[in-house]
Design brief:
The complex is a heterodimer of chains A (about 240) and B (about 600).
Chain A (H helix, E strand, L loop, with lengths): L4 E6 L2 E6 L4 H7 L23 E4 L2 E4 L10 E3 L3 H17 L14 H8 L16 E2 L5 E4 L8 H5 L9 E4 L6 E4 L9 H10 L5 E3 L12 H4 L4 H5 L5
Parallel strand pairs in A: 1-5
Antiparallel strand pairs in A: 1-2, 3-4, 3-5, 6-7, 7-10, 8-9
Chain B lengths: L4 H17 L7 H12 L4 H11 L3 H10 L11 E6 L2 H5 L2 H12 L5 E2 L5 E6 L11 E3 L2 E3 L4 H12 L28 E3 L12 H9 L1 H11 L11 H10 L6 E6 L8 H8 L1 H15 L3 E6 L7 H13 L15 E6 L9 H8 L23 E4 L1 H13 L1 H5 L9 E8 L5 E6 L4 H7 L5 E6 L5 E3 L18 E6 L4 H15 L5 H18 L5 H17 L3 H5 L2 H9 L1 H7 L12 H4 L1 H6 L11
Parallel strand pairs in B: 1-3, 6-12, 7-8, 7-10, 8-9, 11-15
Antiparallel strand pairs in B: 1-4, 2-3, 4-5, 11-12, 13-14, 13-15
């Protein structure tokens, strides 16, 4: 084994991980999919969505915020955890107002795709029918709060040129929501709108114009199960 | 957007003055926002712009912080702002009648500010006065034992723009001193060997500095002292790990964000024994080689701030605090930082964020604060009671401490006893007493349930009254709340679940969405619309919230439901429908509750026979 590499075990399969990696990253490198909504590429993990809940020993942890350690044994695809993930997805569906058929992001939405992967038919919890705002005041960006899952990807990943924050969390508890600093001149740019839409896992941040350029039915998750791209790599590892 | 140019310039002037006073220190953002709220009775929009500009932090972050805390508001809350405590013990003591009296006298509803902006009525979570309810905060003055008649008197003075101080009755002990002058009682019922005995500041510190810093940590480790805030982490180990982390600076934080409904012992400790607590902090600072200590004081206890600052000044003048303590090379100072209303800030990493002037959201752990805490430096966060114990251990020895309590839980514990009993208040007891013994101490009879550890703890029924208060059985931060047989347990469980839905920070999904769903499910059962299936759903969802949540709040928030389901199944069985397997969520009474509200009636949530 190379220097800086360690062995961990996911669902009984031994894999090689790099020291300092999160469980999610190590799994992905080895063709194992652990679902995530808030975790995104090189962003500092937030741990808001809890989709990546795994069991390490007797403890339940979020795999995106937990760093691998030598000999770690991780339970990922157990019946229990799959059921928990499905429940968390359902919670998100009833908490906001997610009308997939009319959403510009349908087919590219990771919440929707995960709901398909975990075979959600209808949420088992009562809908909140909460009233949320749609902010279309910016020239290029629409903030559709009905669809926001407060994952913080935009807050962490879409910054002004000098690195300062444009997006942030406002309020707390059930009222918590992301907000764009509309007084910031960069918030009004097309570049920021595009970045925001690209980073948003759901349809909460939409760039104005061109929403249906790729027709529904031909979008990313219309024809492939989310995570299958990772799992395809498994045989190659 | 701002329509009032004179307000705008006043705000600007205030912000400039504040940022100058605090030397553009970003970690003092909460302190600045507190002063703005206090002066303008709100956080005006321009204040956020100017603060962002002067402190050079993104506007959205200032707004994020300002909107996180309960005592900050984007709307005017009135020259006199009433925060009525609506915790379960307050309701049990008659909060409803007091609130009606406030509404009647002020001519507005709770949640509103009068048109002339003279008075605002708001509710708030537990303010740490459970043994003297109903209680309220008005402009940081504490009012206890409120009655409708007294409310009339208070509102009259408010309408006349009078002095709240003139309404304050004399308090007990140090509460009556000039710098506190609060009408608060201490109600210290049992005085034990650790906290409420003779004490001379500085003696323990002298012993510590004669023995050496590593020896201090060793003595704490040997004493078996564990954290008194509720989590029970071994204190010596915490201090040892912090010291073992290489760093430029280290910090000692005293967690006085005593927000768990039912606990108020830190309030009494800080009132009557602040020197002992501070001495424990100084000893900790000496042990881990820190130079700075922070007392994070919850906003609800801000009435103690001036007094505590005077105590600190006294310690400085005795050379027990500040530069070159006891003429040694050890320097250590303590500052007080106030919160602004958020239960979550009792969680140590949320507290650290808040002390840094940010939203009080817990951090992902690891790294733990002992490795990366305040300003990312190694930090210990301990409860005041823990610091007090530590000082006494150093003075009297580990063995002295270890002889008290049980083998696995050494020393004493301060219990905050409230609810249905003759003598509510503070009890210093050794670990290991049974619940039944404690009920005897405080004169509680006809007891239906005891809640040990507040809403995040355990609901116990009579069958479990022989269990012991200790880390291996009923581990607790000290809240001991008694409910007699005349109480409706459902209303208490409901109160506690509402508390968690209000106090969740909202950061992670299971805690934010899950607690709201749990509350809904409970209401469905309470209005007689539940079946056995609903109880099963509550249990499943409760367990998921516990295991999937990111911090201790979510990991314990379903406890009122889960522990009452386990220990009081009969109350649930009494209300669930036995004749059907499934009921929809719809209920006529519940569905009309909004219109009931408009008609000024309380929605009828009682269950018919």
């Amino acid at each position: 084994m190379e220097q800086g590499h360690i062995k961990i075990n996911i669902d009984g399969r031994e894999i090689i991980a790099k020291e300092g990696q999160s469980i999610v990253q190590a799994a992905r490198d080895n063709g194992i999919f652990i679902p995530t909504l808030c975790d995104f590429k090189s962003l500092q993990p937030a741990g808001t969505c809890r989709m990546c809940l795994v069991k390490v020993g007797e403890r339940y942890v979020s795999a995106c915020t937990t760093i691998v350690s030598q000999g770690m044994s991780v339970e990922n695809e157990s019946v229990e955890l799959k059921e928990n993930r499905k429940s968390l997805i359902e919670m998100l569906f009833v908490e906001g107002n997610h009308m997939c058929p009319s959403c510009e992001k349908s087919g590219n939405c990771q919440l929707q795709a995960l709901a398909y992967r975990y075979q959600m038919t209808a949420p088992r919890y009562p809908f909140s029918f909460t009233q949320r705002k749609i902010d279309a005041s910016l020239p290029y960006l629409v903030v559709e709060h009905n669809r926001c899952i407060q994952c913080l990807r935009c807050v962490r990943g879409v910054k002004a040129k000098d690195g300062h924050d444009i997006f942030g969390f406002i309020d707390r508890g059930g009222a918590i929501h992301i907000s764009v600093d509309t007084t910031d001149t960069e918030a009004a740019t097309e570049v920021i709108a595009q970045k925001a839409m690209d980073i948003c896992p759901v349809g909460a941040l939409i760039k104005k114009g061109g929403a249906y350029r790729v027709p529904i039915g031909e979008r990313k998750y219309d024809n492939e199960v989310i995570g299958s791209d990772v799992e395809k790599e498994r045989d190659k590892v | 957007m701002e329509q009032n140019p004179s307000l705008d310039s006043q705000v600007r002037q205030k912000v400039v003055q504040l940022t100058k006073f605090y030397q553009q220190d970003k970690t003092q953002l909460l302190a600045m926002l507190r002063e703005i709220q206090s002066e303008f009775r709100m956080i005006p929009g321009p204040a956020i712009d100017y603060l962002a500009e002067e402190l050079d932090i993104p506007r959205i972050q200032v707004e994020g912080t300002a909107s996180f805390y309960h005592f900050f508001s984007s709307k005017n809350r009135g020259r006199y702002t009433v925060y009525m405590n609506t915790s379960a013990t307050s309701e049990m003591a008659g909060a409803a009648a007091v609130m009606l009296a406030f509404e009647k006298a002020a001519g507005i509803k709770f949640g509103q500010t009068s048109e002339n902006q003279q008075i605002g009525l708001f509710t708030t979570s537990c303010i740490g006065m459970c043994d003297q309810e109903p209680a309220a905060l008005i402009n940081d003055f504490v009012f206890t034992h409120l009655t409708p008649a007294r409310v009339e008197e208070i509102v009259k003075v408010i309408k006349e723009n009078g002095s709240l101080q003139s309404l304050i009755k004399s308090g007990e002990g140090k509460n009556s001193s000039a710098l506190v002058s609060a009408e608060v009682k201490n109600n210290i019922r049992f005085k034990g060997p650790v906290f409420f005995t003779d004490y001379a500041p500085g003696e323990a510190l002298k012993v510590a500095m004669e023995s050496g810093s590593l020896e201090v940590i060793e003595a704490i480790r040997k004493s078996g002292l564990r954290g008194r805030g509720g989590a029970g982490f071994p204190t010596g180990q915490k201090w040892g790990s912090c010291r073992a982390t290489d760093a430029e600076s280290r910090y000692v934080i005293c967690n006085v964000d005593e927000g768990e409904p039912g606990t108020f012992k830190d309030r009494v400790l800080l009132t009557e024994r602040p020197e002992l607590i501070f001495e424990g902090m100084i000893i900790a600072g000496y042990a881990i080689e820190a130079k700075q200590g922070i007392v994070y004081l919850r906003s609800e206890y801000s009435y103690l701030k001036k007094y505590l600052e005077q105590v600190l000044e006294g310690l400085r003048s005795q050379n027990l605090l500040g530069r070159r303590i006891l003429k040694s090379r050890f320097s250590f100072d303590i500052q007080i930082k106030l919160g602004a209303g958020a239960y979550i800030c009792g969680e140590e990493s949320a507290l650290i964020e808040s002390a840094e002037g940010k939203r009080g959201q817990p951090r992902n752990r690891p790294p733990f604060p002992v490795v990366s805490g305040y300003l990312h430096q190694p930090t210990i966060v301990n409860n005041p009671e823990t610091f007090g114990c530590a000082a006494k251990i150093i003075l009297k020895g580990s063995d002295w401490f270890k002889k008290m309590g049980t083998s696995a839980s050494s020393g004493v514990k301060l219990l905050s006893i409230s609810g249905d009993c003759e003598k509510p208040g503070i009890y210093e007891v050794q670990w290991g007493h049974t619940v039944r013994e404690i009920l005897g101490f405080c004169g509680a009879t006809e007891v239906l349930a005891v809640q040990v550890g507040g809403p995040s703890g355990n609901f116990l029924s009579e069958k479990e009254f022989d269990r012991k208060i200790c880390y291996s059985d009923l581990s607790t931060g000290g809240a001991f709340t008694i409910f007699s047989k005349k109480r409706d347990l459902f209303s208490i469980i409901h109160n506690h679940m509402e508390f968690f839905t209000k106090e969740t920070c909202g950061f992670c999904v299971p805690c934010r969405a899950g607690n709201t769903l749990l509350l809904k499910q409970l209401e469905k059962v309470m209005i007689g619309n539940g079946t056995a299936l609903d109880l099963k759903k509550i249990e499943e969802l409760g367990l998921l919230v516990k295991k999937a949540s990111r911090c201790g709040l979510g990991q314990s928030s379903p406890n009122p439901l889960l522990t009452s389901l386990k220990n009081f199944p009969e109350i649930y069985q009494r209300v669930v429908r036995q004749d059907v397997d499934y009921m929809s969520q719809f209920n006529m009474e519940f569905a009309t509750s909004d219109s009931a509200k408009v008609a000024n009636r309380k929605p009828n949530l009682e269950i018919g026979d």
